Structure formats: structure tokens, C-alpha cells
Fold:
Amino acid sequence: MYKRTLIRNFIVQYLKDNTTLFSDRVFGGRVAPIIEKDSEYPYLLVFTNDESVTENQTMYTVRELDLMIGVVSKSNDVDDLDSIVEENLYDVEKAMSYLLSADNVGTDEFKLIEDIYLESINISRDSDSQSNISKASMSFKITYYYQRPVGLVYSTLDDFDVDGSIANLIITNKGVPANV
Structure:
């Protein structure tokens, strides 16, 4: 499985296990589930956006992944919706803070997550229609090591011509004075 998928799945399960307001209402992906009743709010959507390679090595790269956590809240008390959204954000941030602590971030270069930090929070609401649904997004940057797939062959010794290489070496050195 692709490592960014493993990271996303890990965060989904982690939030299910470590938040108090969401429990089983944490979903992996951008598409919201069909919500039929008020008791199914608030919920979280966990998905990944952009990814950049920050360092290239022969067999692995260091990558930085944009992980988004969408918080969807609903309240019939539209005037207090901001407080409800902020309470939901706090629950997520509190849970993620344990993951962000230095003791919990792995030091082995091929663990799932090398480093993680909160980059931004954005809250939006459709104010024209006085909607009682508010959406917020938390953007986290996750640094991880990605080992190149084993099936890819970057160099092989099967085609290496030892005799030809030695002959080339001798020809290359022809005319160079001998060591005295």
C-alpha cells in the first residue's frame, strides 16, 4: 500500500481512538458521508492534498505531505456556531498534540511519520443563507521517508562486463608514467 495512504489511514484510526466528540464519525476521504440526522454531527474528513519531495537519496526520498482534517459541525443555535466549531477544533488539536510531541514522533528513519506540525486552521460558513452548518479545515504538514518500491531496478551487475572494464582501464592508463 502507498505510504501516504497508510499515513492517512493511521490518522483516521488515531482520531477515532483519541477524540472525545467524534468517535466513529471520522472518515478517510474528501467526500462527506450521507448525513440523515442531527445526531451524526459533528464529523471529520481526513484526506491528503499536495506532496513534495524535499530530499532525494538513492533508495529513498524525504517527502512532505499536506494532510487535511475537515471538521463539519451543525447547530440550530446559529449565533453560537463559532463556539461549537472551536470546541470541535480543540478536540482534534488536543488529540493531535499527543502525536505531535517529540516522544511520539519516531526517530527511526523508516517509521511511518518522521515529523508533523499544524500549519493552519480555516473556518467557513455560508453566511448568506444563515446555514446552521459550519466547516473548518486543519492543515498539517507531515514529513516522512519513502523507500522506493523494491520492484524497481536502478542498477544491475548482471550486465556488467568485468573483462571489458579492466581492458578499458588499461587502455585509459596507457601512456601514464609508472610509479617510481
In short: Residues 106 and 180 are 55 Å apart (CA to CA). Helices lie at 3-18, 81-100, 162-173. The radius of gyration is 26 Å.
